[in-house]
Amino acid sequence: MTALRPALLVLFGALLPGAPLAAQRPCDPQEPRGPSHDLYCIEMVPTGFADRATGMAELDWPGGPFTVAVAPDGTHRWRLRLILAGLPDSLLRGPRAAFVAWALPPSLDTMIRLGVVRNGSTTTAPVVALDRFYVHVTAEPDSSARAPTGRAVLRGESAGNRLRPADNYQFFLGALDPGAQRAAPAAPSGHQGHHAPAPADTMGWTAIPMYPGLEMLPSEMALRPATRAWRPPEDPTAPPARPREVRTLADGDTLDLAAGVVRRTIAGRSYTMFGFNGQYPGPLLVVPKAATVTVRFANKLPLPSAVHWHGLRLDNKSDGVPGVTQDPVPPGGSFTYTLTFPDAGIYWYHPHVREDLQQDLGLYGNIFVRPPGPAAVDREEFLILDDLLVGDDGLVPWGGETPTHAAMGRFGNLFLVNGEPGWRGIAWTGEVVRYYLTNASNTRTFNLSIPGARLKLVGSDLGRYATEQWVESIVIAPAERYIVDVRFDRAGSYALINRVRALDHLFARFFPEDRILGTIDVGRPVRSRHSARFDRLGADTAAAAEYRSVAAQRGPVRTLEARVEMTGLPFVTHRLMQLDSMYFNPVEWAGTMPGMNWATTGSQARWILRDPETGAENDSIAWKFKVGDVVRLRLVGVREVLHGMQHPIHIHGQRFLVLAVGGVPNELPVWKDTALLPAGGTLDLLVEMTNPGRWMVHCHIAEHLQSGMAMVFDVERE
Ligand code: C2O
Ligand code: CU
To answer: Which ligand neighbours the alpha carbon of 644 most closely?
Structure first.
C-alpha cells in the first residue's frame, strides 16, 4: 500500500462528520434512513452471570473496492464492531483475566477469537467471513485463551442464523395447487435441471427449469406468469450470427449500427435471437478519448427499440432513452446519435426498451475509450458476462406485455462470456493481460476469480483507482465494469470461475454455487516489458487529487429509498415470500426460487425509488440541479418490504463516487455510473452534475427497471 492511502482515509473520514448526512451505522440509535439494524446489528442477550450487561455486534462493511465484500468462495465478509457495557468486572479474577469475544458458526465446530473486549467501550474485531454465526463474550481467566473456558456473559446470533428449515405450515402451503386446472409440471429429471416438455397453458407457458439439486414445493412449481409467453418469431432467413468484430473509430467517423434478428448456435442448439450488425456481442467500438462519432442506428427488429450508450457523459439528445430523450425507433425506423467520449474507460451499449428481453436476446456491445499513450500491458481482453435461461424446448419465453421474473430478475442457467458458453482465452507465461469486464446479465451479480493467478484491480466504470489493489475476486453487478490486470506465472490452463453462496430457502442452508465460465490457456514463457511493473501497485496522484477536491465540495443533499410493493400475488407466493422475509442476504446471488420468481410479473411487482422528503415515487420525482452542483445522495435499501434485495443503481449522463457503505467511509473511490446497493444497506454517493439535460436514475436489474424502478432529474445550465 502506498502512502496515499492514509491521506485518502483522512480525507474521506474527515468529510463525513461535518457532512450534511451523518454516516449512519447499523447499531447507531435507529434512524429511518440508516442501514438495517435488524440485518446488520446483533443485539446480544446477557446470561445469568451478567444481568446488567448489554452488547451489540455490528456487521460492518470491511472496506475494499466493492460495495459488497466477499471471500473468493462467496461468503460475506464483515468487520465486527462490539459495543459493550455493564459487564460484571467481578468475574475477572487474577491479573491475566479479561473479557474475550468469539464468533462461532452454527455447527459450533470452529471458534474464531475476535479478541479482548473492554467494558464500556467499542472494539473493532478482525474481519471474518461467515454466512451465519453466533457471537459470544466470555470472562476468561487468561486473556490469551485460544478457546473459551470461562463463563459466557453475552450471547447473540446473526440475522442469517434465523433461517430455519421450512416447518409443517410451509409444507402444507407448498402442497396446495393453485393451478389445478393447469398442466402439472413434470418431475425433475436429475442434474440437468430440465423438465420433460409439458403441454403449454393458454398463455403459452410450459414450465421452467428447476434449480439443479433443490427441492421445490408443488404449489410453487404449478405457478405460471399471468402474461402472454413471447419469443422472437422464427425467421428462417435470419443470418447466422458472427463473433464480434473490433471497430476502430477516429474523430469524425460514422458508424452504421443495425439491430436485427440472427440465428445463434449455443452449446449445440440453435435459437432465434437478436444482434447488432449480425454479431455477438455487438461490435467492440474502440475510440480515442475526446473524439466525436456519429452512429446511424437502423432498427430491423420486429419491436420498437433505441440504443443507450451506458456511462458516456454525452449530449442528452443522444442518450437513447425513449420517453425521456427520444421516441422509440419503430421497426424499420432509424435514428442518428452523436457520441462524445470525455472519459477514458470501458462502456457499453444496449437498448433502453424492454431490456429484460432485448438485451437478454443479445443486444449489447462494449465501447473502449482508449486513454492517450501506449497501453501498460501486453494484451487486452474485453469480456462481457451474461447468463441465458434455457429450457427443454428452447429459450424460456419472455413476458409479452410485462416482464416475468419481476421479483428477483431473470437468472439464467447457461453462463456466457462474449456470447459463448465455455469461452477460451489465451496468454503467454509472464505476460500481463488486462481484462475489461462488463456484466450484461439481467440480474446476476458475479464473484469472479482465476484460481492460481493474482488479480490486480486498476479501474472501474469511468476511471482508475487512485491506488491499484490486489483482489482475491471481483464482485460485479449488472451494468458495472471492472478493469483487472493478471500475470500468469506458469504455463497451463486457468479457470475463470464464478463462486457464490446460494440460499436454499426450503431447507434454510447456504450452499456453494461454483460455475466455470471459461478457460485461459497459458503457453510457454515470453519476455514481457510489463512483467516487472506488475508486482508494484501503481498510484495515480492526479486521480487522488481530483477525488479529494470533488469530495471537499458542498452541495444539495438527497435521499432515495429502494422499495417494492406487490399486489395480486397468488396466496402461496405471498405467504412464502413473507416467510422468506425473516432474513434477506445482502445479495441474492442465485435464482433458487425459480417458480415464484418466474411467475411474478411486472403487473404484480412495483419496484420503487422513493424520495422520503416529499414522498414522491419513481416518475413523479422531480429533482432539479444546476451544472456544477455536487450532490450527496444517500441510497437506502429498505428492509421492511415483502422482498428486499440488492439493486445496482445507475445514474445516466453524470459520474459519481461512493463515499460510504453502510456508514463506513470508502477509502477507494473511483468514478462510477453504477453501484451495488446491498439489501437493507446504504450507500452514500457524491454525484458530480457536469452534464446538462434530463437524465435517468434506475435499477439495472432489467425486470426491476421494467417494473417501475426509475426516475428522471434535470440538470440546468448555470
Ligand atoms: Cu445501462 Cu439506463 O442503462
Ligand atoms: Cu433492483
So the answer is: 2
- Are 344 and 248 members of one domain? yes
Cα(302) to centroid(ligand 1), Å: 22
Q: Which residue has the cell 406487490?
A: 566
Classify strands 423-429 and 509-525 as parallel, antiparallel or unpaired: parallel
**Residue ending a domain, choose from 373, 395, 418:** 373
Range of the domain at 221: 174-228
Judge whether 676 lies within some domain: yes
Ligand 1: residues with CB < 6 A are 308, 310, 350, 352, 479, 650, 652, 696, 698, 700
Average pLDDT over residues 261-290: 97
What does the pLDDT look like over 181-208, one tens digit per residue?
Answer: 444 444 433 344 444 456 778 898 988 8
State the cell numbers at 21.
448526512
Query: Is 525 domain-assigned?
Result: no
The answer to whether residue 12 scores a pLDDT higher than 70 is: no
Q: Which amino acid is at 146?
A: R
Distance 44 CA to ligand 1 centre (A): 43
Q: How many residues does the chain have?
A: 718
SS3 for 313-354, per residue? CCCHHHCCCECCCECCECCCCEEEEEEECCCCEEEEEECCCC
| Domain final position from 373, 404, 436 | 373
Contacts of 236 (CB under 8 A, 6+ apart): none
pLDDT tens, residue by residue, 22-54:
678 999 987 789 999 999 999 999 999 999 999
Nearest alpha carbon, ligand 1 atom 1: 310
Q: How many domains does the chain have?
A: 4
Ligand 2 midpoint to CA 645 (Å): 7
